[in-house]
Every structure is written in structure tokens, then in C-alpha cells.
Amino acid sequence: MKMYSEFTDSELVRLVKDRNHQAFAEIYNRYAVLMFYKVNQMLRDEEPSKDLVQDLFVALWDKPELIQEDNNIAGYLYVGARNRVLKFIQRNKLKNDHIASLAKYASEISLETIQDIDERELKIIVQREIDNLPPKMKLIFEMSRKDNLSHAEIAGKLGLSDQTVKKQVNNALKILRSKLAVYASFGLIIIELSKRN
């Protein structure tokens, strides 16, 4: 049987309409952090941003019939997130020009580019944190994650012990998880942090 991570968005939407919890969890894992990132870009306040994204996904679970199966789920979620931000701004009478201009920008962005933009922005954030690792740790981490080398292969190439490589990878993971905690808290694996060697 296919893993849920292998299903298309349309297949997952059909399953969510049948009240499939695992399909819903997969949609959440794919899109929650992207929605949080975009909402937080507009509000610049993490707590209400988290609340609005949680509300968005609760609404998705409560009323999946509102989604058309051929609809772009990323676009659907983005419009829902944007609408919640605009209502939040109105409700709280926020007059900040910066927030207003971001909200205007958000309402004008093309839905077709949302997913690509968000994924690109998140990759930039992740790469920035990887670039900030100590040089040797960064090299070992990238050999492990980008080149898909095992600890033993990395150790052989760099003339290190397996234990040293393992320790460096684990330390890199701790640093990255800490730095990316805001995004990881939504359950989306931005990079393959849990990859086994």
C-alpha cells in the first residue's frame, strides 16, 4: 500500500472528505509551516500567527466539503490564511502601515506561485542556518544530508572515526532543531533531520 506521503494533494483531499485522519495529518505536515511562515510574515507576531494557522486547519477538518477536489489545496489554504489575517487586523484595529502593506501584497500574489515561493523561502532559511554551523560540522552534515553518505563513508573520506562523525551530525541536528523550532513546531520536516545512516 502507498504511504500517505506518496499521495497527491487531490488524493489526500478526497480521503479527508471521508474523514481520514492520516490524510489530514499529511496535508497538515505538508502545509502548516508554509502557512505559518506566510501569516507570520504579515503579522510579525508568532503567537497569533500560530493561532490563526491552527484555526485554519481546524476549519479544514470541520468542513472539508468546502474544498473542491480539483482545487489547489495550497492556494485554498493560503486564501483561508490570508482572510484570517485580514479579519485579525480588522478585529484588533491594527493601524501599522507595514502590516497593511504586507496584507495588500498577500492579497495580490498569484496563487500559482504560492507553493514555489514558500518552499524557496524555507529552503533559504534552512540553508542560512546550515551555513552558520561551524565549518567542519557543516561539511559533515552536508555530506550526510545532501550527498546521502553514511557515517562510515564520511569517516573514511575525512579520516575520522565513525563516532566523531555521528557526534558532529547529532550536534548539527540539535543546533538546527533549536534554530528552526518555530517552523518545526508545526510538524513539517523542513529538511530530513531524522534521516538514518
Automatic annotation (TrEMBL):
PANTHER family associated with the record: RNA POLYMERASE ECF-TYPE SIGMA FACTO (PTHR43133), RNA POLYMERASE SIGMA-70 FACTOR ECF SUBFAMILY (PTHR43133:SF46)
Record flagged with keyword Transferase: no
Organism, as annotated: Pedobacter steynii
Alphabetic keyword roster: Sigma factor, Transcription, Transcription regulation
Family: Belongs to the sigma-70 factor family. ECF subfamily.
Protein's UniProt keywords contain Transcription: yes
One annotated GO biological process: DNA-templated transcription initiation
UniProt-recorded name of the protein: RNA polymerase sigma-70 factor, ECF subfamily
Residues covered by the RNA polymerase sigma-70 region domain: 27-93
A Gene Ontology molecular function term of the record: sigma factor activity
Domain RNA polymerase sigma factor 70 region 4 type: 125-175
